[in-house]
Fold this protein.
Amino acid sequence: MVAESDRQRLGERYMQVERKEIADRRNGELARVLGPALPGESQEELGRLAREDREKAEEGLAELRDGEEVWYKPVEELTRRDRAARIEAQRKRLEWVQGRLKSSSPKNPQR
């Protein structure tokens, strides 16, 4: 069983991480991570996605996701019940970015 003081400390650490992510997004992290458009992508579309992400961060909003349903909530209002939806949103974004990077890397030659 987790002591209440440990639970509170973990909750505070979780919120520190969430606030740092908001600050990073506010500073244009998504645009930096995305970089230039890959073949078949639109630089304008990537720019739009990065702008929208920065705007949401400036509003202090964190993305939550449940399957295909996506919504935003002020980071200061996140609760323990939101963690699964936050983790899913972060996982989907990471998978998307990794998929872009993987598709842009040269294929390993067959031996």
About this structure: Residues 1 and 7 are 10 Å apart (CA to CA).
